[in-house]
Write a structure and sequence with these properties.
Two copies of one chain form a homodimer. Chain A has 265 residues and is of the alpha+beta class. In chain A, 34% of the residues are buried. The first copy, chain A, has ten helices and ten strands. In chain A, strands 4-5-6-9-8-7 form a six-stranded antiparallel beta sheet. In chain A, 31% of the residues lie in helices and 31% in strands. Chains A and B meet through helix 3, strand 7, strand 8, strand 10 and helix 10 of A and helix 3, strand 7, strand 8, strand 10 and helix 10 of B. The first copy, chain A, binds a DNA duplex (19 and 19 nucleotides) through helix 3.
DNA sequence: CAGTGGTCTAGACCACGGG
DNA sequence: CCGTGGTCTAGACCACTGC
């Protein structure tokens, strides 16, 4: 079954680009294709028109269309192969667009999350925190300890350290919002994080806070987050209740390794 | 201290592109910059020349230089800001280029890894495995159970399931190589994986195999891996010894969220 | 062989950041 | 204001895939 169009649905018919909009053309195109995938108008295995025809149909140049496609590839929504075309990917990969670090917020959306702020103060950074954040001797950091619950049950015990010079945090707003949301409000945009995941048996205090018994296996995560300027903005040590919670992530293998593997130079 | 060049070192002087090489020009440029970063000739905070001047200096067009820079940005090696330029990023982010899924191999490089193949047979896929790999009723899969050790101590107990139609595996080669290396040899290129991490208390058999006591906290990971064609190629259930092992990963936040966050349309 | 994406060019104008 | 990266165009040729 080879279909140049896409079964009963031709996505190009419903796509429009607005040249008066401040939104980049490639982004308008990418978003509309993304929507069609999200809505199920384009499903796994469907093939898109080739770049040239899309460019003609929408009155765009080919590089612009390619930029839109690159966005979709980066998101794992489509796969492209020379000589074969552009095909909608398995939902599994794309469905979980959520990043590990943000999963809290999304997951809890269905679970009525609450956050209890156990600790919120400005202190001298410990050696570990200084090292992680690249701070100088005597630097001050905001130290947070929060208990995140969903559906009435505790999910995670979270310790965070942020450079005190970065922003001011309100304890009240911490109760209502994720930390990253507050950072974004202050024009700090997390862009990359370096994470380390492990496991540990619950201590007595951890067990009590998380409503578990001492010795229960807990998932641990240590993370250093950097913003789009390359600044270290947060060091976190979290402990998750493994019985109620998993950390999800989508990882992409390095293209360069494949490249080297396939080339012969 | 504003330096248009880069302190004592001008990276452009040592960069050459070979137009007769089959390696793309943008990739030649990206790799050479990457090398200079790896070798410490370019260090965190250094600023690169702007696109136009690099293009002129190397006799390339600006889009080609941009493509090289995009590669470096994707790898987290540099950050770029309009009006400010291209700056080498914190080492922390870039150092750990390693993917979670491949960490085994890299880590074990320093630890003399050994792999004991406990099980290697072709079986009917269970419902869970069929679901994960998107297989039909009655499909056959290769079932693997391996114990990975480093420095004489067991590190991980690994269960893998691969579509039997995908390739043939030799038990001998499994002892000597990582699974992904064998896949690549068969022209199967893992490109994305969907992972779920958790924790559990060791069962008696797990404890025995991993030289731990029953109840010790273990790190668990479930993963479905897709290749560059978008095919599901592997479903894995691994259990790691938390006392000797961590899972590392570098995650990048979604650009589009930032984009939306900053725009006003 | 025809069809596809991959690479590359030589320009253009715009948007943002900082002095 | 200037310098920077961000977007966009209209072409060109090449490399891989599958028939």
């Amino acid at each position: 079954m080879a279909r140049t169009k896409l079964g009963s649905h031709d996505p190009l018919e419903t796509i429009v680009v607005d040249r008066s909009s401040p939104v980049p053309l490639y982004y308008q195109l990418a978003q509309q294709l993304e929507s069609q995938i999200a809505e199920g108008k384009l499903v796994s295995g469907d093939r898109l028109e080739n770049e040239v025809r899309i460019a003609e149909a929408l009155g765009l140049s080919r590089p612009t269309v390619r930029q839109a496609f690159r966005y979709l590839v980066d998101k794992g929504l489509v796969t492209r192969r020379r000589g074969q075309g552009t095909v909608i990917a398995e939902e599994k990969v794309s469905r979980q667009v959520t990043l590990t670090s943000l999963y809290d917020d999304l997951e809890s959306a269905g679970k009525k999350p609450t956050t209890e702020v156990i600790r919120h103060e400005v202190i001298h950074a410990s050696d570990l925190v200084k090292e992680a954040l690249g701070l100088d001797e005597g630097a001050m950091v905001i130290a947070l300890e929060r208990l995140r619950s969903g559906g009435g049950e505790p999910i995670a015990l979270m310790h965070n350290f942020l450079p005190a010079t970065l922003l001011d945090l309100s304890t009240d707003r911490l109760r209502e919002h994720g930390l990253y949301a507050l950072l974004r409000e202050s024009n700090i945009f997390p862009s990359r994080a370096y994470q380390r995941m492990g496991a540990k048996n619950a201590s007595l205090t951890e067990a009590r806070l998380l409503h578990q018994s001492k010795g229960t296996a807990l998932l641990t995560m240590e993370r250093t987050t950097f913003d789009d300027r390359g600044r270290a903005i947060e060091f976190a040590q979290h402990v998750y209740c493994a019985s109620r919670y998993f950390l999800y992530s989508t990882v992409s293998m390095d293209v360069s390794e494949n490249y080297v593997g396939r080339s012969t130079y």
